[in-house]
Amino acid sequence: MKIDGQAAIVTGGASGLGGATAEKLAASGAKVAIFDMNVDKGEAHAKAIGGAFFKVDVTDATEVQEAIAAAEGLHGKARILVNCAGIGPPGKVVDRDGLPASLEVFNTVLNVNLSGSFNVLSQFAAALHKADPVGEERGVIINTASVAAFDGQIGQAAYSASKGGVVGMTLPIARELARYGIRVMTIAPGLFLTPLLETLSEEIRASLGAQVPFPSRLGDPAEFAQLVGSIVESPMLNGETIRLDGAIRMAPK
Q1: pTM greater than 0.85 (yes/no)
Q2: Number of domains in the chain
Q3: Distances from the Cα of 190 to the Cαs of 47, 196, 210, 243, 253, in angstroms?
Q4: Domain span at residue 108?
Q5: Is 159 noted as a catalytic residue in this protein?
């Protein structure tokens, strides 16, 4: 599917991987709607790329449904969805005081990263599945997992479980939505220079980048966005998770 002229939705699109993706899609001619909880950054980024911002909690079915409808009113039927919204607070199963992990925190991570992704993609697919096709397809859904889905480190039980769930649902959903001509893909990025890592010192960031076999550096969010563009424009890419990680395999800690 050609990006130019299509309407797109990017969750978590105010910054980081989602921000770069929103910018890439807009530069390629898409009409982009950013769904995010950060109003200041979201509005500023939407203005910069000529898109629209909607404050959306991805775990709230009503908010998502209303935002998709509002975005359609502005840009027309969205054909591209990129789910980048997510959180990743660390937490051990047993903490240093010998206490068990917070079940509330564990469930919150799963709710945002896994259930939130499912909520948005299901609402998106429901709004799209009866639309006229564009060529041989109706649209594309791209979810964001992580190498933690495969190489989870100590303290990443909740995060790894949530991202493993995103990987696990990719194929069955792609198989289900195939009848409607809607593709479903997942990207599993490695170490990227996201806002979280930007808070670290240059020395620590260099140390993290050195762990990547090649290229030995942190990934640039623009490289994630580049892959998003390639997936949208490559019809045979469907039902698969692509690691975007410079061949890194994470150590236990």
Answers
A1: yes
A2: 1
A3: 29, 14, 13, 7, 15
A4: 7-244
A5: yes
